[in-house]
Automatic annotation (TrEMBL):
It holds the Pfam family BPD_transp_1. Residues 87-276 form the ABC transmembrane type-1 domain. This is ABC transporter permease. It is a multi-pass membrane protein. The chain crosses the membrane at residues 20-44, 89-115, 135-163, 204-233, 253-276. It is found in: Cell membrane. Signal peptide: none annotated. SUPFAM superfamilies: MetI-like. InterPro entries: BP-dependent_transpt_permease (IPR050366), MetI-like (IPR000515), MetI-like_sf (IPR035906).
Amino acid sequence: MSTASSASPPRLRLPDADWPMLAAGALALLLLMLALLAPSIAPLDPDRQSLMARLRPPLGFDRADPRFWLGTDQLGRDMLSRCLHGLRLSLFLALFGTLTGLVIGTLLGMAAALGGRIADALIMGLVDVKLSLPFTLVALVVIALAGSSVPVLVLVLGIAYWAHFARLVRAQIMALRELPYVEAARSAGASGWRLARVHMLPNIASPIVVMTTLNFSNLILLESALSFLGLGVQPPTATLGSMVGQGRDYMASAPWIVAAPGLLIVIVSLTVMLLGDHLRDRLDVRLRDR
């Protein structure tokens, strides 16, 4: 007669979760949804002025108005509505600025690595000139000549970090172009651009993705700095940086005008940088095996 086994049934073991990264991902998704739905969920018109309700503090403080959860600014505009719309525009500028720099830098990096010595010398000389110039001076010149519209700001933010992408792509392609599988494809008659597009770019996608996330965070801060200096989107349109810049004269009497958009800038930048570090750890084989 057989006896029942006393061994307990196997338990389902879930893989270890990286809870900080999961929290960062959830926060990033929340910020993205707030930005996309800003016109629908903002309680008031972000540009509507009400001088009778100016400098109202957030809920929970004396003189707070229940209509304005985060208070009002120096012109009586709702801070919550302006933060939502400012987040939307700041993320838009940073996203398209990052994509612009990615495209320009990747194309020039490929041309430098595969175009011969003359092309390499010219492009890398241009990269060195770009890195040697103060970016604020470049932004001043471009905005003075072309204005401060949204397309111009996307272009300005795009040229901020294209040189970093160009140097990265050039270095990665030069390291790959002598490998056996690339030599085999070249012997089969593949052109230089086909080699880069089909055989090289897929293998350098990991560092490009990581640099894209890190530069996105940098562009959030850069857009805020330009708006703080008055070089960004002009009033009354709200961005996070312009809100901080316009409220700096009221920091002593109404600190919430600067605190709300400033806290959003910190949260967005920190979230994107955490995700970038996570992608680096997951995509880099040398770090993944440790």
